[in-house]
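S.,

Sequence below, as promised.
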Amino acid sequence: MEYFAGLDVSMEETHICVLDREGVLIREGKTATSPKAISDFLAVGPECKGVVFETGRMAPMLYHGLVELGISVQCIESRQAYQALKSLAGHKTDRNDARGLAHLARTRFYKPTHVKSLSAHAVRSLIAARKKLVGQRVTIDNQIRGLVVVFGVRLPRALSPAFKDAALAVSDGVPGLHAALCGLFAAREAILTAVAAIDGDIKKMTRRSKVCQRLMTVPGVGPITALAFAAAIDDPHRFKKSRDVGAYLGLVPQRHQSGEIDYTGSISKRGDVKVRTLLYEAANVMLTRYAAPLKLKSWALAIAARSTMRKARVALARRLAIILHAIMRDQTNFKAA
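The prediction came back faster than expected:
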């Protein structure tokens, strides 16, 4: 007899349901959210042929931990699970969700998703932290501009040395404004120091990574883009074709077809937002700053000539995703043509 389990995971507790091939309930309960506790719970009953749970914050830790303990586990997209669980369960409870996931495991009515390695998640955390810090710095810069514009002063570029000098010059003799600006500039300096430290770590990581060095041979692709793309793809062999990466990163048009209705819309914007944004920026750099002749650039500029520059950037970003994946898979460098 074959048995299947569904895990409804939360931060502290995980509800577990075990069914047989016919859908008969064998065992259910809850345990602490840790690979060891879940493994001990499953070890008490019959061995499960398939264990299923949804993607989420705890998914990487649980997946890799359970695999190390020898449990056959699959992770499925929460969006797919949500649609299936709505039809399987009546009330939305953790117990019913675990039962619904067990039924999905039993019927195999799911598409397993790739769970990135913990090292890839660590790289993504570094890039996410940098983006958050840069955003905070921009927010502080805008706040400083808003405070001094009341006094009729328009400040220069934020990253120029004259930005701070001009702002503090306005606050001379104005006690309230001076104290406010000093506090904001102190926070700004701390953020700039943290961003510089992260940038240093990113440069060290890219220098040590042969994959990133190959990716950076593509015009417009810098250390952050290379590192973020490598972390997002993780294992290039999980894609059958390089063109599938465009859809994975949400860079392909959406299509809706129903009867006589059939139209193509804008890009889906699914997948990793940060990587998609970085590829768009890399495409913009290639189109606006790369001076050498390049067929890829000429192809994108032809799209811009008959459409818009924005669509050309999106199309080039999708093409860059395909090229970068091929470089990772074949372990080759970019050759300009």
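The chain is about 60% helix and 15% strand.

Coffee later?
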